[in-house]
Amino acid sequence: PEVEMAVFLLFALLVTAHALSHNWVVEDMMFVDFNSPNLLSDAQAKFAANNYAIISLEKCTGHSDGYFTEDAIAKTAKQLKSFNSSVKVLMYWGVESQSTVSCYRAGKDLTDNHSDYFLRDDHGNRVPTRSPEDFALDFTRQEVRDWWINVPLALKASGAPIDGILADGTGARPLEFKNLSLARRQALVQGSYNLTAELVHRWPDGLVLGNGIAMYPQFPDHFMPSTHYVNGVMTEHFAAFESRDRKTGQLNTTRVKLEMDLIAQVAADSTKTVVVDTWPGPMVSPLGWATDFTTPTTNEAIAQAMLKYFPVSLAAYLTLAEANIYFQYIWWYPIRFGAIPCPDNPSACAAPTDWYNTTRRVGAPLGKATLSDDGTVYTRQFEHATSVWNMMDELKSSVEFH
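Given the sequence above, the corresponding structure tokens read:
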């Protein structure tokens, strides 16, 4: 039944709406995913709405102000759209484990009324995911998938002006679960694929952005099968983390070029919106640079690093940019780590007060990027800019506007 459902859903996805498309101005190419424990001020909301094309509001948004995540997202989405009606607002909604619903009203419903929705291993025990306190849900069951799907659909139906979800953890991680047969683990992977595809089918004009492509060596398929079951695909660690040497910070250029090829494959589908997450400097772990570098830790130092490396990330992104590919550039997901500046108190957050040149028009590309003879420098011409991405000497990268 799971396979038959998958075939039907794949056919249904062929007729989904076309991807989002930007206008080749930097700020219109930018995506951001952040968590704000407090509701946004109007100044913060106005900045975000006018500097990002797509905004994903994370788990536990508004939690410190006493809100369930769903209610805070509904309130914040209305606030953002009051400043820019065209900005797209997504609800973060994780696939991988119940930890992602801990701040949601749905989390209370899960705990109080649906404890049987948790996955049980071959010995009858709940199955932990990345930590002993987080347990997987059994997405091989239709009623569990329906419960998950109905949370964002109910929020949309209540009047919240959300445009879709960021579905975190859409890859094949259930294959790593312990004490389950291979057949059960494979069925769980397919169940999670069907989960997102069913949501796309039931929300025809919604964006279901799956955090999909990954370059971890233990997953040789790079989670690419998951990209067929969503209408949006994120690659969270572009030219970072598992694609860098943990000591020297040097890029694994073979791995990065493969990732670029995978991104291009997905973006070639006119129904797919793609998000490329870029990171400042030699990032090899959350909040951490390679050991040969001193990782900035103060807000001021992080803000300086973000300004310093922005041209590198922008050039890397422009090397593969298409009209349906967007990019993110933050230090990490809490709002203070680069999403929105704090002009009234610059030391209170790690975002640069002097924002990047995001109002500059890049213009449409005049062709694909060209690669130097030694295979390390990409150059690409646009109507109003030239980008140079030097993969081995990254601070020599540049984006020149003209």
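DSSP finds eight helices and 14 strands in the chain. Try to locate this feature in the token string yourself.
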